[in-house]
Design brief:
alpha+beta, 6-stranded antiparallel sheet, 3-stranded mixed sheet, 7 helices, 30% helix, globular
């Protein structure tokens, strides 16, 4: 984008389901995603240019993106999400989600450390998903993540991408690599506990997209 230009905002819902992985997981794709199972179910496997873990993108996620001039974004990558977390939190609360909160840095680090300390296959998989662990400045209801955020930086612009769940991410368990079906059910339950969607909160997604941005 041209330096000094106004922010660009877009909203969309995926036309077909896909498991999307962050750039850093490219080399471990086969260890995390069950590509054959995805193919059999008609679910694409895609890579995004932003970082982050695996996520199921389908009709149950409201996606958004805001493009800003690079000069308006702070250099610290973690701190650069703060403003968007505050903005999304304000929009969610105005739409009828008063219990939401922006995840603090210490809160996120504690959650990740707790998962790493468990040292089991399910915890490792949760750490490889976008919504399986808390991250700084994203939005949660208690310990359950509602909004995930990622970004792509270029010379003149930064693209902030976010996904607002309309239902929990438990269905992602159907497409990840697990040892057996018992493990899959354990993963499904864990993702169901660690994520929450607007539908269960009685909020219509169009209320968010229609609000001034």
């Amino acid at each position: 984008m041209v330096p000094g230009s106004a922010p660009l905002v877009r909203w969309w819902v995926a036309a077909s389901p896909a498991v999307v992985i962050g750039l850093g997981l490219r080399q471990r794709l086969a260890l995390i995603v069950d590509v054959e199972r995805c193919r059999a179910a008609g679910v694409e496997v895609l890579e995004r240019r932003a970082g982050g873990g695996a996520v199921l993108v389908d009709e149950h996620m409201l996606c958004g993106a805001i493009c800003l001039p690079r000069a308006s974004v702070v250099d610290d990558v973690t701190d650069s999400y703060r403003w968007l977390g505050d903005l999304l939190l304000a929009k969610l609360r105005a739409s009828g989600v008063p219990g939401a909160h922006r995840v603090g840095v210490a809160e996120a680090r504690t959650d990740v450390a707790a998962l790493k300390a468990q040292d089991d296959a399910i915890s490792h998989l949760l750490l490889s998903t976008c919504y399986g662990a808390l991250s700084p400045h994203e939005i949660a209801m208690g310990a359950a993540k509602l909004v995930g955020i990622a970004q792509v930086r270029r010379r003149h612009a930064v693209l902030f991408q976010f996904g607002i769940l309309l239902r929990d991410q438990s269905a992602l368990a159907d497409y990840l690599q697990v040892a057996d079906e018992t493990s899959r059910e354990q993963l499904r339950a864990a993702l169901g506990q660690r994520t929450v969607g607007l539908n269960s909160l009685g909020v219509e997604p169009h209320q968010l997209a229609q609000r001034p941005w």
